[in-house]
Fold:
Amino acid sequence: MKAFNAASASFLDNPAFSAIAATNSVLFIMKLLGISRSSAYELAAEEGFPKLKLVPGRVIIPRDKLFEWLDEQTSYMSG
Structure:
């Protein structure tokens, strides 16, 4: 298996990506990004952050959209 190269690939190309559930909670974002619970909820409240609000009080984050958003927010440094 070819190694994942973060400098030249998107998050979606990482083989570990498929092991993540298709939809996730804000607490998953907290753990994934290593941020506090309040920071995770602030991030989820930002305009443009990928989320579904199907029921009041529940925020669902689609995996594919999350990783696309992370790719858009990330600048890879080469060299």
